[in-house]
Amino acid sequence: MKYITAFGVTKGKEHGVLKKKGLSFQKFVFSLCMGCGVFVCSLFAFAMNDSDAYQLLLSDVKNSFGTKYGDFVENGGSGSVEEEEGYSYEYVTTSGLNLDLIDRIPEVATGKIGYIKELLSIYRDAQNGKIVDGVELQLATLLGMHVNEISMVNSGGDLLPRYYFKPEDWKKETPNYCLWDYTSKSYKAGVTNGNVSEAGGYGIFQHLHTYAGTKSGVEPLSVKRDTSSGDVRFLPDMIATSAELYREFLRSCCPAKYLSDSEKGICIGICNNRGGAGCAAYLMGMHEYRDFFRYCNKMSKKAVKNSVTVWNDLFQEYFNQNIDSMDADVVSNFDTGESRCAAILIAAHAKDWYIDQFCFNTTNGAWNSMLSVYKALYPREYQEDKNGAKLKETLKGMIAASVKESIKRTTNDSSVTDEDCVKVYGTKNYQGGSRMRSDFGGSLWHVSKERDDGVYKNSYASGKKPYYITSVDRTNAGYFFNCSGITGKYVYARLLKIAGVNSVDPTNPSTYSGTVTSIVRTRIETSTPTQTTTNGTYVGELDDYYAKNGVKLSNLSKNRIAVLNVAAEIAASPNWIYGFGMSRWGTCNNGRVGWRTDCSGYVYSVYQYAGFENAPRTNTTGIANSPMWNTVKFKELKPGDILNSSGHHVVIYLEGNSINSVTDVEAICDKSGSWIPSKEEEIAIYHNKDRNGYVPKRFKSIENEDYKLKPKKVPHKENDKDTITPAY
Questions:
Q1: pLDDT digits (tens, 9 = 90+) for 550-575
Q2: Which of 183, 310, 386, 486 is the most exposed place for a label (fewest CB within 10 A)?
Q3: Which domains can be identified in the chain, with CATH numbers?
Q4: Contact of 249 with 271, CB cutoff 8 Å
Q5: Model pTM?
């Protein structure tokens, strides 16, 4: 049996682990006594400063290393902790959120207070490594991811993290209505009154099929259930899925010991969204998931600190400098589009950050969102620049046409060429869709004056070591912001206040921060881990296209995301035009050439390319009579459903509270209303359309979670191969 002292952290590679071999009994006793002495003194000092917290610590000391839902280490007593074979342990003291405050939330049997306490308790267990063996996921990060992915829900006037059931319906240890028991069985039983749509994937973290359902080792409370461990809708298993993606990054790229809590949060967030290899690639200035292993060796401590710390410092420095002026309530409820604006805005106030032209255009297209974020983050500056004219000039100054240009502007080194950048970073620019999908919204990147210490596989042609670059698409810049802990900290404080912890002031971090001492348990690798890559499937980010057209979409299922992404891709393409039927590439009456479709052909194409192979090839009359299209009430319509007028026209519904004022995306001949191709063949979004007389329809398979989508590539050029049959 191996032992470590209770608080005897040893410097160096061993990290407090006392190896069995070579450890004398005298040294062991001495270390044990010293550890106990430090522990007693620490408790005494703690008591002098915070008697309430001291009493809480004493009351909870027996359970401080585990809960009934997944103990990860046994308290060995007498100031020692039993070490399992194959694991190493270290005691780590950090400054962060005071998680003991969760225990001050009153115990209740029903209602939103109990919901808050259970949610925060589970996330605390995740941070303490109790949900997933050997992996810590920061509470602030999980909260940031939670509200970023599916937003908040109004519960009795309070905004709370959304879940499958309403927070006010929570019941302690009740099947289907507590977090420790909500499973796919609950979902299939129809317990979804919290209005959580599984946009892009399963659960509150929106995991794809590929990754969803990693086994946490924590079992639901229900004794009788028809779900297995690894349930896509069981919260501990959702956490385990995020943990596994993060673990991939840690194993193949970066030891966790190099990262602070907020730095871990950034990596956890981006791993959740793009996988381990995607996270590594972004940190080292690439956008392709496999490019890290193509262009880089295993990350070093220097590379990790240079890349992750750059992002962490960007957000933490903002937080420290602006804590007294920022609007915390607004910041804690940023949606995904606003988070992206926040990341760009904060970078605009720092040095050596750059954006490409496409990122500028995308940001400019969502200028109202940028102004609202500007007002919340920099209220004083906003008062002098309410239309954002000065801000826009600053953003223009951040635009760099190429990587070499940004390197020269930061380092004054003009010797780096485009060829060097392609050789080292895999790209000479981050413009638009050259190295990433154009619908990611462009790029944000940082150039460091620090040079590589052997991570990049190639050097510049001059023989000099490359400069570190870290880059990310605009979509994931927002994820970086949310997962850095800023959003999560405020959400945490606000939830505590709502739950009755009156000592907490969300505007004063000192009321909910503290010093945390915890055990870190790490599996000892017996061999070099295999480098793995994540071949992530893009699930779409709708905000950029739809937001700049005045449409806000959120809380959508994966099926609807797929439909709306294709609808946007076709509508935004200059080579898709209106034309009767689906004669494919051809010339319309006004002389325009491109991929032709009429209104019903557009609906058919959207559903087919999205992956619904059972979508029928028919016209508006056929839609009216097809058993694949169910009639629904207008108030039941969701984005991606359709409004059909038999023999006349059909549109894809986006939003609208009245059938007399609908926002839709459609293929229409021209804006004047003529149905004879003449002036403007348009496939686009239209606002305030009167659809009185149209029948609301829903494709039968769009609500079927088990339907396996088989998406197909949308053609854009004349010689592109098409994969679907013309409509008629």
A1: 887 777 888 898 899 899 888 888 88
A2: 386
A3: 1-105+515-528 (no CATH), 549-703 (3.90.1720.10)
A4: yes
A5: 0.57
